[in-house]
């Protein structure tokens, strides 16, 4: 019996190796015999381990072996013509082979470290040396020379094409098309199941790759792992002593919600990111039209698909601040940033399930005159996305509900955040602003009315986090409609839902009305309730006026004494 089990296990390992090498077509069906054997071998010994103190993550509820078995089954069901099918099957198969035999270095996952370089030959050897110094046994380094003139091939001459067992280096030379295009070329050329991004002037600590793979093993359903990095050097605008890196576990942390992190601030630095190669292929190329900010755009696209992120609080690399790097080119960043925000806005408008993130994004667009830059900027790329925004506004007003939701709160948010802040420089905006405001007004007229589902979506339920304060205009519009319906005796929600809504509503007279509405036994306000509310509002207003008058009088008396 043991001999038969051993033979079946050997066949299962050979089959996993065959998939991991990507030889031939992917089998169209999963062998139940191999699946049962692998599952029995892994057993309960690979149950989820408690997270170490440095790992910030939402835990996975199943062991790593069970997760990767399910992932491999799903990958093998995909069509062989699907470009993601093979790399995804390879990823899960290599993980299973590693879990079955941890001591065999040949079964370790292959990690491709991708380095775009443009005239950074001075720093490139240090970066490549840090890659070859990794404690992980399987490392491939892919360097993409983006039209450099300082001959990075000569700088890499000390590194042979195969620098020891499990180490390889490939250099790909292209015309200068930008860092985004170079990263796309690198990830398409990578052969590993996992990729790690690295800039030419940054370096990795020796245990960086191994520790991130260990984090992936502890949280097998994670799709992206990042970490902190120490910062050295300085520029005219930044200094290592004042640099504030990501604070994982607090605020808009990408491990909780990557979209929330993207709309509030920069999620993480590129040289700390590791993710499966199949996810790179599913996400697609980096946006080559964005000279600056292509990394932010890439993280945003990953957030749209609800990518699960885990993070290590420890510093596992070194980032160098220096003059002449892409980060210091503030003029280019100011030109690319408006397009970046505009693309994010159009993407969110196309995804109704993500509409609650519009408030924070619109608030950031309004700050620092970004909306003015969008309306007044020039360039074909910006003009195309402005037209895409106008088309999306028209679609929002076509009186059809999307995912069961009304577009009216979204249109209210756009009107309050953008139209109200577009007063300056209207003469420089051409015909875009008048068209935008005209289409927005027409869309508000024809947008479908709200109902109970809209209220639940925007306000959430018991235990849900409170809605972002930047969504206030849309939420107040919803509450006004609830208030108007209550005045006519038409209610959108039942009493428990109204009580929850009153608890979560903003403070003010509207909250008082909702509170009284929740207390009404028949859910219809009588005259006594409206009288009490109006009286309370008048008393509150009178007291506020009295306090303002007293403060003004005291101020005048104090000023008169000083002048006397």
Task: Report on this structure.
With 564 residues, this protein is α/β, with parallel strands linked by helices. The protein folds into 3 domains: 2-103; 108-328, Alpha-Beta Complex (Spore Coat Polysaccharide Biosynthesis Protein SpsA, Chain A), CATH 3.90.550.10; 334-439, no CATH class. The protein has 22 helices and 9 strands. The protein has helices spanning 2-21, 32-42, 64-77, 85-100, 124-132, 152-155, 179-189, 208-218, 258-264, 277-283, 294-304, 330-349, 358-366, 370-376, 380-396, 408-419, 432-446, 452-459, 472-487, 495-504, 509-519, 527-563; strands spanning 55-56, 111-117, 139-146, 167-174, 194-197, 203-204, 224-233, 274-276, 309-321. The chain has a 5-stranded mixed beta sheet with strand order 4-3-2-5-8, sandwiched between helices. Strands 1, 6, 7 and 9 form a 4-stranded mixed beta sheet that branches. Strand 2, helix 5 and strand 3 (139-146) form a beta-alpha-beta unit. It is globular. The chain starts with a helix and ends with a helix.
Structure in a nutshell:
The protein has 564 residues and is of the alpha/beta class. The protein is built from 22 helices and nine strands.
